[in-house]
Design goal:
Shape: rod-shaped
Largest sheet: 2 strands, antiparallel
Strand content: 5-15%
Order of helices and strands: HEEHHEEH
Radius of gyration: 24 Å
Number of helices: 4
Number of domains: 1
Helix content: over 70%
Strand order of the largest sheet: 1-2
Structural class: mainly alpha
Length: 119
């Protein structure tokens, strides 16, 4: 085994720049953050992909979107325009939610700094 591999295997913490990332990952707040992000992001992504791929699938395999919605404008055009609205809405929703995630990250950093001061 090389010296680098030996030194890495003997070192049980991942300290980079004085920060113990292993301790941060094991902390309860970090796990709460990851769970909250997963709970928010996964359903959002599923909704986005279903909504996004519904247009090409519905236009290819059905005639539902070919009927007029407003004068000569068909439902396919309305659905396509709705995708732009959906994208901007999801982006603004995520931006607002990310601010809450950032507050949790600040708590994690403060907790880590307090732990480092004790050591």
């Amino acid at each position: 085994m090389s010296n680098l591999a030996k030194s890495r295997s003997s070192n049980t913490t991942n300290r980079i720049g004085g920060i113990d990332y292993s301790a941060i990952v094991r902390s309860g707040k970090f796990r709460e953050l990851m769970a909250a992000k997963k709970k928010f992001i996964i359903p959002l992504c599923i909704f986005y992909f279903v909504f996004y791929f519904a247009l090409p699938i519905m236009t290819s395999y059905s005639k539902v979107l070919n009927t007029p919605a407003f004068g000569p404008i068909t439902w396919a055009w309305v659905f396509a325009f709705a995708q732009f609205i959906m994208t901007w809405s999801l982006c603004s929703l995520y931006t607002k939610k990310a601010a809450g995630f950032d507050k949790i990250v600040e708590d994690i950093v403060e907790e880590n700094n307090a732990r480092e001061m004790k050591v």
